[in-house]
Write a structure and sequence with these properties.
Self-interacts. Interacts with FtsZ. The structure is a single chain. This protein has eleven helices and 21 strands. It has 420 residues and is α/β, with parallel strands linked by helices. Strand 19, helix 9 and strand 20 form a beta-alpha-beta unit.
């Protein structure tokens, strides 16, 4: 019989277009995250990242979590959930105020953060993240904690991620219908970046391309945070569908062909190696066909060519089109395709590597590939105990410096209206 969960337990839940996966972890004595149990079920109710069938998705969530609970021997009550559908927007709002050269006190920081919290109004969108990244003193960046330092001007950079509200509410309702409390809903690119990218990469600038089953998210990280992103309504499942259509077989067989025989690269021997393809129908005397590996890879590369063209277009739109010194990291289930890193490097003209989850102990080998990067990143995000402006309670202090809070609120409100 499963026991109640101990303190410090973290449960991550990634609801994707092809699979629903869960992970239960706990902080070890040295601060590391130790995986206690994992679970996975096929996703039947999600299309292109959006909930399309509440009942089917709810069942998959319940089964995935129950599997993780059985392995961990623990009952869990709340989860951190990823949101990977399109419509996400990311921005950094900068705010600065005059201090007059005095020493920064906690009250100055509190007033600034409270003004930011009260002023957030992203023009009808739902805010998923509103986090103070770093502070500035007299325009100098990179200040983690300004308290106790002297400055003429104190500023803060607030990282905001927002999206359309209805898909998030549907996701929240689906998880709660499975009798789970939602601790927070996290934008998938934020979580995936934590799992796959080093802090130095995020500071220097890197593009993260997560190829999911139905959606490919293109994220650009600068100065340590997710600076901009875009979603492409195409993914690894489209390659599977192309194979099924081209060779007249079932999706399950097409997926198997892609995973076991497919490659993004071509070689001369591909023209000689034969592969058996089962027919769509198993009834009657329907016979399968035989194709060469070259035929299979030609279909795969045709879809990849379209996908990489879209990725290149989005990289340009996100001002990440200069290939010099700009690395790209591929992750997601689609990044498990054989030879895709080499193909992407040639197609995009920049250094490419595969991003796998890092930073978790006892992670099962079956869940250590790029397809589970978001799941691992969710646990890492939760363990970091992130500060979010929306969770800060409004403070009412008797003494304030005249006019400052109102000015901050007005400037931050204007910044949000301009960006959303």
């Amino acid at each position: 019989m499963a026991k109640a969960g101990p303190e410090g337990l973290i449960t991550a839940l990634d609801i994707g277009s092809s699979k629903v996966s869960a992970l239960i972890a706990q902080k070890g004595d040295g601060g590391e995250l130790v995986v206690l149990g994992t679970g996975q079920r096929e996703s039947r109710g999600v299309q292109r990242g959006y909930i399309a069938d509440m009942t089917a998705t709810e069942a998959a969530v319940r089964e995935a979590v129950e599997q993780a609970e059985r392995i961990a021997g623990i009952n869990i009550e709340d989860v951190w959930v990823s949101f990977s559908a399109g419509g996400l927007v990311s921005d950094v709002v900068k705010l600065e105020v005059d201090l007059g050269g005095h020493r920064v006190e906690q009250q100055d920081v509190d007033e600034l953060l409270n003004a930011g919290r009260n002023a957030i109004d992203p023009n009808g969108r739902m805010v998923l993240h509103a986090q103070p990244m770093r502070y500035t003193l007299d325009g100098r960046n990179g200040v983690r904690n300004p308290k106790g330092l002297h400055a003429d001007k104190l500023g803060v950079d607030i990282h905001v991620v927002a999206t359309d509200g209805s898909p998030v509410r549907n996701l929240d309702l689906c998880v709660r219908s499975a009798h789970l409390e939602v601790k927070s809903i996290i934008a998938a690119p934020v979580a995936t970046g934590l799992a796959c990218l080093s802090e130095e990469e995020r500071e220097l600038g890197v593009a993260l391309v997560e190829i999911g089953a139905g959606v490919t998210n293109v994220s650009v990280f600068r100065e340590g945070v997710l600076a901009s992103l875009a979603s492409i309504g195409m993914g690894a499942a489209d390659i599977t569908d192309d194979i099924a259509s081209a060779f007249g077989t079932r999706r399950a067989q097409a997926e198997r062909l892609k995973c076991f025989h497919g490659s993004a690269n071509m070689s001369p021997r591909d023209h000689h190696e034969m592969i058996d393809v089962a027919p769509v129908s198993q009834e009657g005397e329907a016979e399968g066909t035989r194709i060469t590996r070259a035929q299979l890879n030609t279909v795969i590369r045709a879809r990849l060519e379209r996908l990489m063209a879209e990725v290149q277009k989005e990289l340009k739109r996100l001002n990440f089109d200069d290939p010099v010194g700009r690395q790209l990291v591929l992750t997601g289930g689609g990044a498990e395709l054989r030879g895709i890193a080499d193909y992407a490097q040639q197609a995009l003209g920049r250094a490419v590597r595969i991003g796998r989850p890092r930073g978790l102990s006892a992670l099962p080998e079956a869940h250590s590939g790029p397809a589970f990067a978001t799941l691992a990143g969710l646990a890492t995000f939760a363990a970091s105990d992130p500060v979010d402006l929306r969770s800060i309670e409004p403070r009412h202090t008797a003494v304030t410096r005249p006019g400052r809070v109102g000015t901050w609120a007005a400037r931050l409100f204007s910044a949000f209206k301009a960006n959303y």
